[in-house]
Each structure stands twice: as C-alpha cells, then as structure tokens.
Amino acid sequence: MTSPVASVVHQGTQVKLEEERQRIVISYVLPVYNEREGIFFFHETLADVVASRPEFDFEFIYVNDGSTDGTLAILKDLAKNDHRVRVVDFTRNYGHQLAITAGIDLAGGDAVIVMDTDMQDPPEISLELIDAWRDGAEIVHARRRTRQDTAFKRLTAHAYYRMLRHCTDVDIPLDTGDFRLLDRRAAEELRRFRERSRFVRGMVASMGFRQREVFFDRDERFSGETKYPLYKMLRLAVDGVTGFSTAPLRLITKLGFAVLTMALMGIAYAVGMRILRPDITVSGWTMLMVAMLGLGGAQMLSLGILGSYVGRTYSEAQGRPLYIVRQVIRHDED
Ligand code: UDP
Ligand code: MG
Question: Which residues form a coiled coil (predicted)?
C-alpha cells in the first residue's frame, strides 16, 4: 500500500517532469554578408513561416560575416525586436563556410537548420525539412530540383557535383548546397570537425546517420548580387576535392606513366634510326620542343596539385582559430 504522502510526492514529481519536458527548440543558422536590402524582409518572411508551427520554439542565429554595408545595424534591430534572434558578429569576412560553422557551434536547438539569407533557400521549405526530421531522418538535405542562377553557374555546378561524386568515397548528395537540417546529435558530431579549409556539405555527408533529401526549386536572389564571385567558388570547389579525395595525387602517377611511355617510344625510335639508318640525322627541333613543353607542363601541373595538398597540410598544422567573434548580441543587450 502506498502512503498518501508518497503518492503526493509521486504526483508532484510527475507534474514537475511534465513541466521539465522541454519544448522542442529549432535553431536556424543564418549567414549574412552585405545583405542590407534584403535581410529585414527575409526575417519577416521566416518569422511568418515558423509562426505556423507553434508547437516548436525557435532560435535564429544570424552570423554577420564582416558586412561593410550597415547590415549589422539592421541585425541589431532584429535582435532588439525579436527575443529569438541572436547575432554573432565576426571581426572580418571569414567566408560563408566559416560563418555557418560558427552558427552551428553556437546553436542549442534539438535540430539545426542552415540556410542562406537571400531568399534563394525558400523559408517555407525549412518546414518540410522539419517534417522529414520528425519522421525520423537525422540529416535532411534540401536538394535543388531547378535553380534560377546564371547558365554558367548552373552548368559548372552540375558538372562539378558529378565529378566530385565520381572521385570521392563519400556519398556527397548531388545538387545540394548548405541548406539542410541537422539533428542535435549530428550537429554535435559536426562540431568536432575542425579543419580550416572547409567543405561543410562534404563533412556532413561523410558522417553517416539517417540522411534524407527534400526537393525544392531554388529561387532567384531577392536583392543584391551573389557574394560568391568566381574565385571563391573555385576555392570552395578545390576544397571539396582536396578535402575528400586523393584522386588528383593519383593522377600525377598516371601522368608520370604516360610521359614515361612516350619517352621510351621516343628513345626506341631515336636509337632504331641511329642503328638502321646511320646516314640520316633525325631532324629533331619540333620533337624537342614538343617533348620539352609537354614535360614541363606535366611537371608544373603535378607540382601545383602537390602544392594544394601541402598548402592544406600547412594551414591545418598552424592550428589557428577558425574565426574570431567580436561580440554576440542578444535580445536584451545592445
Ligand atoms: N555569405 C557569407 N559570407 C560570404 C559570402 C556569402 O556569409 O563571404 C552568405 C550570404 O549572405 C548568403 C549566403 O552566404 O546568405 C550565400 O551567399 P550567396 O547568395 O552570395 O551565394 P550564391 O547563392 O550566389 O551561391
Ligand atoms: Mg544566394
């Protein structure tokens, strides 16, 4: 028989447990670089979209990646007016990949959604990511069905993702940027990846977990221009390959074999002519030039490939901090 006191205590704990069963929190990680014209509208839209899910609590982490156009003032305003907003202010521009890294480092939610702040990743799709997560997926990638970027960007991205998939062991999902949801566990694991040259989508794909894709149509940028000029795109592309594959290093060996084979054929030809037709001097200017330039080119290329891996090793060995935060701005602070 339970004593009345015990039963009261028991009930008391139960009520407390109910209270303590926390509401599910979803963190949004939102990198921002010079988005003065669009960022306010973006936040309004996102806030409207998440209002349809009152069963969850939300947290919006804006990472100001060294904007120079007054974006920070707008972000501060957002934080002042919305208690769910936090602003992480970098000391300079560290790039998109590090901005999302800082956001994920700080996110405290049960799920973390990373998305761009230029309306190219439609906020309403993030709800579909949440649904897939509630359905049991631990990582949900938003995959582009169509996109509205320039023909050049569409073409190069299309080819790149297929090439990357071909030369890495990691199953990197096709046509997927950094718009995705990570379960709390996946986010925790991702925080342990501290490499500097980051290709976050590859790191996520390499982690395993139950992964799923949600398709979406990528809109045009709401305002302003892309903050990914060609050189940044190229650097990211190189980081993707060197971070997840040693295929370029193996290419050097193949190149070496090809050159060696040609050299042996050349030697055989020259010696053969010397023995069989000593009366003819092989006129060799063209041959020499071709061989020299070909060899020189192959060597430079090989050095370049080696260099990019050595450079990577060097910058990792330095072990410097990935980014420096000037301040974190919360609702009740200035
Ligand atoms: N971004 C950033 N730092 C950068 C470049 C871009 O935080 O150095 C942000 C930018 O504000 C946007 C997202 O990353 O929210 C994607 O950038 P963008 O739209 O310019 O790239 P695209 O969509 O053209 O590939
Ligand atoms: Mg964009």
Answer: none
